[in-house]
Amino acid sequence: MFRWRKGQVQIGDVYVKRILSMLGEEEFEEELTLGRKLEALGILDEGKLNYTLFLEVLAVAKKDPYAKTLLVRFVAENFREDLRRLLTSELEFVELKWTRDFEEYLRDPPRGKPIRREDTIKYYRSLFKRYLEGRKLTRKLVEEVAEHGNQWLRNVFRHYAWYLYRRGQIEYTTLNWILIRVPGRRVPRGPRNPVVDLEALRRTLEFLRENHGEYYVLYRLMLESGLRFEHALRMLSTYNPRGSGVFNDRVYPRLYCDRARGFCRYLLGLDSGVKRALFAYYSMETGELIREIAPWRVHRRSVERYVGRHGLVWPKVLRKASWQLLLSAGVPREVARFLHSRFGELRVSEEYYEDLVRRADEWYPRYLGYLRQQGLL
After folding, report:
1. pLDDT of 282-341, one tens digit each?
2. DSSP state, 95?
3. Is the peptide bond before 183 cis (omega within 30 degrees of 0)?
4. For residue 345, how far is the Cα from the chain centroid?
5. pLDDT at 225 > cutoff 90
6. Which end of the chain has fewer beta carbons closer than 10 Å to its terminal beta carbon, N or C?
7. What angle do CA 106, 185, 227 make, to 5 degrees?
8. Which of 353, 104, 123, 318 lies closest to 223 in space, CA to CA?
9. Tens digits of per-residue pLDDT, 110-123?
10. What does DSSP say about strands 255-258 and 263-270: parallel, antiparallel, or unpaired?
């Protein structure tokens, strides 16, 4: 055994069993070199790698979380430069093009939120055409977009990276690197629903009443109904009080007015997509103003430019103000959610919606009274 360990003699097969019986487990492990272990497993054959067995070992390691972590760490530490070159060569095969298929992907992605507003898609298209169209997906371009000041360009670039991955044009590692390197749009952190400045809201309504009648009607409608900006614009542009509509398998008149309690209920019926709007409640006075101007169309950007030019409260604030004032008026949260068409937060059976219409009719006059008490009507 001494001469065998020193490599001075070769041991015949007849003596192997006797020698192994004399060795402990630790001694046996010490005697076997890494190459001999791999040869015993069949991964090495006379110093040459058995690629079939090697790939099978990697496939098994990929399924084991700990082995996968070790494998990734080993590759990252030992083949960093090779990975960089591989990543660069892969990127250079991809040319960026705005297509109808990508546009449809934005509207209905396999994961994540769809983009519903056409003006957002139009803006994305203009950014893409200006900065990305026809360019190669290189590291230089990724770095350029990552450092760009326009956060919406970074957003559309990240969408396009996901699109390329879904179409099999880049690997997951490449997608991951792009998403880490290119930050998304940063949303300022702060209170989700900060308290609305009622004095600023009063000044805004007074200014619009004296200087712009149509915008005054729009603001009153949003404050009284809690409608989103885009839904209020759509209602005024398509206003039609005649006829009826269906909600929860029941037919309702398009416009119902209760003169005794001083309010109207208009059935919008916008029940598709992420943002819904089924009923709009407003005062009789606002109803008269709507009949004077409707149907009335205006682009949201025109309203926003006018508001910004005169330092008025932004349209999106009206829905937040309406929510806070509803709760301050003592309207139950369940009814307030129904008035705002927040059906995802109601968590009630469909049979209960009919009762919520009745309860909203009962509670809404109290909200109008509170608005008058605050000097907002």
Report:
1. 999 999 999 999 899 999 999 999 999 999 999 999 999 999 999 999 999 888 988 988
2. B
3. no
4. 18
5. yes
6. N
7. 70
8. 318
9. 877 888 778 889 99
10. antiparallel
The DSSP bridge partners found for residue 256 are: 265
CA 347 to chain centroid, in Å, comes to 22
Structure tokens at 220: 């009153």
Long-range contact pairs involving 149-154 (C-beta distance under 8 Å, separation at least 24):
151/184, 151/185, 151/186, 152/123, 152/124, 152/127, 152/185, 153/127, 154/182, 154/183, 154/184, 154/185
Give the contacts of 170 (CB within 8 A, at least 6 positions apart).
90, 91, 94, 137, 161, 164
**For 56-92, how does the pLDDT look when each residue is reduced to its tens digit (9 = 90+)?**
877 887 788 887 788 777 877 777 766 666 555 556 5
- The one-letter amino acid code at 138 reads T
Rg, C-alpha atoms of the chain: 34
| C-beta of residue 156 within 8 angstroms of C-beta of residue 127 | yes
Instruction: List, for residues 170-194, the tens digit of each pLDDT value.
Output: 888 888 888 888 987 665 444 456 7
What is the distance between the terminal CA atoms of the chain, rounded to a whole angstrom? 104
CA distance 280 to 221: 8
